[in-house]
Specification:
- The protein has about 325 residues and is mostly helical.
- The protein is built from 14 helices and no strands.
- The radius of gyration is 19 Å and the shape is globular.
Length: about 325
Amino acid sequence: MNVLLEFLLRFVAQLQSPTLAFLIGGALLAATGSKLTIPGSIYQFIVFVLLMRIGIEGGIEIREANLAEMLVPAVFSVLIGLVIVVLGRIFFSLLPKVKMEDGIATAGLFGAVSASTLAAAIVLLEEESMMFEAWVPALYPFMDIPALILAIVLANLYLKRKHAGGTHPVRIFQIVKDSLRGAALSALVLGLLLGLFAQTESVLSSFYDPLFRGFLSILMLILGMEAYARAKELRSVAPWFALYAVVAPVVHGALGFALGYLAHILVGFSPGGVVLLSVIAASNSDISGPPTLRGGIPSANPSAYIGASTSLGTPVAIAVCIPLFHSLAQVVFNL
């Protein structure tokens, strides 16, 4: 009972973090009909700066890291992305009046990774002084790309069986190239390479670090406004997508926490790393995933998978899963 009470107290306290406050504030602005708008170009620039900071710091850390220690978390990241898509495919196949390609696209988006959620989790861990390996954000593509590929392959196989000969063959290499060329992964990979092979410590400390928290607060504000706007789209499709968007991040995060804890036992993965792996698993792609799925599964309804992700999935991942798994780690690791 004392453990449960301690967990609940920590969880409630973390809901007051500035990151979550800006997310809620953005939703309130949209709900009250505010005319405030932030241009898309500014949004894209903010995401670029955040991912560059994460990538550069990760690349610097990888230089000195024991690559054998990264292997197990990386393998687990691939496994999590694939399992999420398979579980989502099974869930939506059991439901009435749900287009299978819509369900698979939604599972693919939830198997992929949200850059904004990852950045929010990193800020929380830094504020709480919970140590984590700086290379953990580099696990992003290990989960993101396999999930998107599997979703597109499963959807096209389903459509091919449904309409024999009615779809184009699936080109996996092209999917990988399109994913890596996406804005989010491009910025993250560029940052990693610069951190690995260039002396970027000075620009990291003088430019990217000071901007990180401020830019993240603006990003949370934008996501809160968009979440409220997308809620209207979600109401136009089956309510099962709303249920999935609320429950799936917690289930996926629990899977990430379990495998992260196993990595802790096997290779000494840090408690902070376990939390970040959980959050990456709980997140759903809000930048690179939607255009990839639009191109790979054109018959899927964007209102279903983007509406589920943006209006509910991302807010649940940020407002619920980040404090949830941080609190769980404090209890499990006795921090």
